[in-house]
Amino acid sequence: xxxxxxxxxxxxxxxxxxxxxxxxxxxxxxxxxxxxxxxxxxxxxxxxxxxxxxxxxxxxxxxxxxxxxxxxxxxxxxxxxxxxxxxxxxxxxxxxxxxxxxxxxxxxxxxxxxxxxxx
Length: 119
Hints:
Alpha-Beta Plaits, 4-stranded antiparallel beta sheet, 6 strands, flat
């Protein structure tokens, strides 16, 4: 079953770029990515640029509206994701617990919708 692991964190709580703490966090991400690849469960994973670089779009009637920045003003921002294919939620949670940002942020683990009749 496919699961999306969405990684949220408050930028104020993240290790600062260039510090030993940042290097340790990045090494943790590299190690986790290598483990999931070796285990054959990783389908995709990327970090995202800062929330301020996003553009939010919505369609109301026939009008397309865009605005700079994220849709919601929150302390925790979506900073990255992993898409994995594992047997069940318990397995997904085991990998999610290894995400370095879980120590100071939040990881949302959500099953990916399966459309058996599509395609």
